[in-house]
Amino acid sequence: MKRVNYCFSTKLTFDDYVHDHSFALRIIPPETASQQILSCNLNISPYVPVKQTVDAFGNNVTTGYLRDDHRFLDFEIKGTAEVDCTKRRTDYMPCYLYQSEYTQPDDALRDFYRAHQDGCIGTAADRAAYLCDILSQTIGYQKGVTDTATTAAQAFALKKGVCQDFSHILISMLRMDGIACRYIAGLAFCDGETHSWVEYWTGKHWEGIDPANNCPVGDGYLVISQGRDFRDCAVDRGVMYGKYTRQLQLVRSILS
Amino acid sequence: MTALHQEQFTKAVGNAGEINDLLRRYGVKFGIYKNGEFKEQFFPFDPIPRVIPSQNFAQIEKGLIQRVDALNAFLYDIYHDKKIVRDGIVPEDFIYISKGYLAQCEGVTPKNKIYSHISGIDLVQAKDGEWYILEDNLRIPSGASYPLIARELTRIAAPQAFEENAVVDNRGYAQLLKETMEYANCGGIRAILTPGRFNAAYFEHSYLAEHTDSVLVQNDELFVEDNILYHRTYSGGKTRIGVLYRRIADEYLDPLTFLPESLIGIPNLMEAYRSGNVGIINAPGNGVADDKGIYYFVPKMIRYYLGEEPILKNAPTYLPFYEEDMKYVMDNLEQLVIKDVAEAGGYGVVFGSELSKERLEEFRAEIIAQPRRFIAQEVIDFLDLPIIDNGDTVMRKADLRAFVLSGETTKVWASGLTRFSRNPDSFVVNSSQGGGFKDTWVLSR
């Protein structure tokens, strides 16, 4: 068990006025068996009334609508949580067993999986650790070569990527292996940005694995959102009108 | 209708010319995309109605209500407890591989648990008189306005036809639709969302809006604030919408939940819907139940959810997914009709008998490679219906789209859209494939 302070902020600025701006944020960490949210403060600027709902995957969704002209939208979440990964989560959904948009393998990724599928016989945990290991030997961590639209197959072809890409490729392989698994977006120690990792279903509960660091997930990880792949977990999605070039100026996260 | 009546009727109408002229003048068209270009096509009307005797219709009606009730129970189950999968009636893959299944709809309960408010069930009558279900359309089927307006115009062109024949009045459709919309209403006005005049069903959208006292809206007039859907008024104010009839595909409905690149959707509509603040007709996620692969399981659903024997039959269907069925399909491919489960509107329908030997072998390999993608059906020998072709009466294949509306109770509209193939050799009757339509008369005695 570990008590953590978390802070996450995003500043969106536009080079011209925008209006009729609808947004949906997934930034409030969910209260689960393995994480207790002791405090949580959300600040959004400019002021806008917001509503909270819980989506199909169990994520807290904050929605709002800024009708008037504005040039920025900042949001920040801050609080304290208690993480205990020995307390297991059991919120299973069958759709996690099937490939989703970002994880659909191409022939190359399928061949890669087939070449390694007989390398390990064992439980879901054994196989996940084994596939994660193979992956870290094949893919190099490199920023700037992929973006949020990159699929597992595309990142695999590059043999490079960031945590999001490692997660998508591992998910794709686990699902080919018949192991249900999901994408996690969250915060981790020693990381100035949001992090992503994978949870696989052992048959009884979820277990976390961090493919970008090739290690199991411990108490130093805070889940913010979860889903079939990145698309279900995007921190912010928005639609707005105006003559602008959208810029995601600053994303900052701290877990301490 | 007796042969004598039919003759009188045909004479009274003269030829279809007068009514078709009126239809043209009223702008009764549907849109079609051909080679990437949008064209508006006239939907040819044939004056000889399809006549369904009262006793026969009573049976169809019972069967359709039973089927739609089971489909609604299935949709609720799939997005909640999934009992039918756990009990092994429907294999899990068939649900989650289906493009129509939307994980984002898990746990969302539409008002009164109704998912398919308007169901268009396509049937054909075989030569022996038996009716078979060809497919279910649960994603706002179009077409009800065509027989409505054709009937209106026929009344003008040949009023005596309705004096001599006891035909059930079909003008109640708008009232029925209005009641169905009201039952799904979560507090606010009724609105019909159209993607605009370049949509296949634009004529129908405007016609239905007018006849159900609903506002015809486009997406840029709508916004979601505090998880409530509003219509922006000309004066700058806002009016709350309680129920939204829409025909745009689920994936385009809300760019913040589904395809981010959608320009025809309404941001955060799904959050308003999830919060119970707006009804969506038909519910998003219905595609999982009208998937051509799921069709096979509908009779099983009726037994499972209602504990009843299906009143209407499915066309004999085989799923290459099952080993036994695969063998049958391989042995009998040249006499079966094969449907691609991902296609609609008469596309992706292949008759084994029409394929060359070479193509047949290629197709065989495709089915073996992707068994889940296809279903195979016996070709039903449809009852031909008479149509007027250049002044002569000729016989053509026809189907019937029946409209089933689910509100406080499930009701079948006593009319429907009879579509026929203009090509004497074709079984495909879809309007997008160049077919025509007839009025459907349900007799009151």
Summary tags:
heterodimer, A: 256 residues, alpha+beta, Immunoglobulin-like, C8orf32 fold, seven-stranded antiparallel beta sheet, five-stranded antiparallel beta sheet, 5 helices, 14 strands, B: 445 residues, Dna Ligase, domain 1, 2 domains, nine-stranded mixed beta sheet, six-stranded mixed beta sheet
Write up what this structure looks like.
The complex is a heterodimer of chains A (256) and B (445). With 256 residues, chain A is of the alpha+beta class. Helices cover 20% and strands 43% of the residues of chain A. Chain A contains 5 helices and 14 strands. In chain A, strands 1, 2, 3, 4, 5, 13 and 14 form a 7-stranded antiparallel β-sheet that branches. By secondary structure, chain B is an alpha+beta fold. The longest helix of chain B has 25 residues, at 54-78. In chain B, helix 2 crosses helix 6 (145-157) and helix 3 (54-78) packs across helix 12. Chain A binds chain B through residues 20, 22-24, 49, 51, 53, 55-57, 61, 63, 65, 67, 93-95, 97-98, 100, 228, 232, 237-239, and chain B through 82, 85, 92-93, 95-97, 101, 103-108, 223-227, 255-257, 260, 267-268, 271, 274-275.
